[in-house]
Write a structure and sequence with these properties.
about 400 residues; 6-stranded mixed sheet; 13 strands; RNA-binding
Length: about 400
RNA sequence: GGUGAGAUAGUCAAGUGGCCAACGACGGCAGACUGUAAAUCUGCUCCCUAUGGGUUCGCAGGUUCGACUCCUGCUCUCACCA
């Protein structure tokens, strides 16, 4: 009997480790993680997993959820998440990956961002196993003396080893001294929270390791394990997913958009998304991949499945299926979408003006060019006359494949 | 503080008195081919009912028939020196 339980534990730990390792870029001190899992399964003791979020932008996208999903995995295997909001550090601005000093946020902006942040995060995380913490709570109290003590743990030389700093330094891009403090403060968070594990993107490596170093320096008798996730590429497949680059899928995107965006990624990128975003097992994914390779599975089908999964996660099953049906209707059968924005105007209107009026063209100049190129359709019929006047009636206007509007001319 | 270099469309980057709404590259949009994939080919990419007009090349003035190009001042960025 006793042996049987032992055996079961072992299986569980193995399974957990496998899930935890999935998609990871690098793990430092994975022995520690294994030990934590072992104590959890043997004694039921939970452990803490810290992840920091910089409330600089109010919207989460799938790039962020890579991290969140990993946190959720830990929650499944005994982890308690410390969802750290960098309310204090946001005032400095994380220098990571930035070629210039970052803009500092106001208190108001931060508070606003935090609210929308957490509601979105709980679409992935288990709320009952998550503790939201704000680092101004303890960093505020640190004071000048504490700050100096903290700073004594780091040499300038070591700081400059950091890739982004050294690049900026050698290219004479300014580095604010306060930016040097950022990794220290982030590391101090780990001291204060006594985190067992911290996870973050690969670009956070330096900061994450700082946590380990400081935990040692402050003698809290443990050093956090560090798990790094790769940075998710955006829709273009090259640059990292980010709002400012416009290549993102937002957690709060409408189902139709979300579905369509996933389907627009390249086949190569699809596997990346599968690995980092899907909850399908790695075996299943491997099967899909070989199916595509030997031609027994159509890549579009496989992509659709991914799109359904993701859309259903942030909305629900029904919405996802609707999105798919809608997509097929518009693109495969080239029919008109169900929901189109409606506009109405009084009196006859020139086609180019009408397109601008409906917000599907930015200017009449652009509208004319598109008409010339045959990109504009009225009621599914290509428009060839750029002087066309719309007289009373209802029309479905279309530009390219994606932009639709309904206009009513009175 | 001193000296020098620079600021051109979404980004990079040509243009150094008229041929400039401004070469080129990237990005973006559209068309063909497709699976709203990739690759490829083609066109477009400041605004205006347009074979024309208007507003643009850091900002403000000036010289000139004419300025992105020359002059003056200002703002900002970078480099070297201190």
């Amino acid at each position: 009997m006793h042996i049987k339980i032992k055996y079961k534990e072992k299986i569980m730990i193995e399974e957990a480790l496998k899930e935890i390792h999935r998609g990871c870029a690098e793990i430092i001190d994975s022995e520690r993680i294994e030990k934590l899992l072992k104590t959890y399964y043997e004694e039921g003791t939970t452990y803490t997993v810290k992840a920091g979020f910089d409330p600089t932008a109010p919207d989460l996208h799938l790039g962020h959820t890579v991290l969140l999903q990993k946190l959720a995995t830990f929650q499944k295997y005994g982890g308690r998440v410390q969802f750290l909001i960098g309310s204090f550090t946001a005032m400095i601005g994380d220098p990571t990956g930035k070629s210039a000093t970052r803009k500092v946020l106001t208190q108001e902006e931060i508070v606003q961002n935090i609210n929308s942040y957490t509601t979105q995060a709980f679409k992935v995380l288990d709320e009952s196993k998550t503790q939201i913490v704000y680092n101004d709570e303890w960093l505020e109290k640190l004071g000048a003396a504490g700050m100096l003590q903290l700073a004594s743990n780091l040499t300038v030389a070591r700081m400059l080893e950091r890739d982004d700093f050294s690049k900026r330094y050698s290219s004479n891009t300014p580095i604010a001294v306060s930016e040097f403090m950022y990794p220290l403060l982030q590391g101090y968070d780990s001291v204060h929270l006594r985190s067992d594990i911290e996870i973050g993107g690969t670009d956070q490596k330096f900061n994450l390791l700082m946590g380990r170093q400081l935990q040692k320096a402050y003698e809290i008798k443990k050093q956090q394990a560090v798990l790094m996730m790769p940075i998710l590429e955006g829709l273009d497949g090259v640059q990292k997913m980010s709002k400012s680059l416009g290549n993102y899928i937002g957690v709060s995107d409408e189902p139709n958009d979300m579905f369509g965006k996933v389907l627009s990624i390249s086949d190569d990128l699809m596997w990346r998304y599968y690995e980092l975003l899907s909850t399908k097992s790695l075996e299943t994914i491997a099967t899909l991949k070989s199916g595509v390779e030997d031609g027994s599975l159509h890549p579009k089908k496989v992509k659709e499945e991914l799109a359904l999964e993701i859309t259903a996660r942030y909305h629900d099953e029904a919405a996802a299926n609707n999105a798919k049906a809608e997509f097929d209707k518009v693109h495969s059968k080239s029919q008109i979408p169900t929901d189109i924005a409606e506009f109405s105007v009084d009196g006859d209107i020139w086609i180019a003006k009408a397109l601008v009026e409906c917000n599907i063209e930015p200017s009449t100049s652009q509208a004319r060019r598109d008409i010339k190129q045959g990109a504009v359709k009225i009621n599914q019929e290509k428009v060839s006359d750029e002087q066309l006047q719309l007289t009373a009636g209802e029309y479905i206007l279309q530009v390219g494949k994606r932009k639709f509007a309904k206009i009513k001319v009175n």
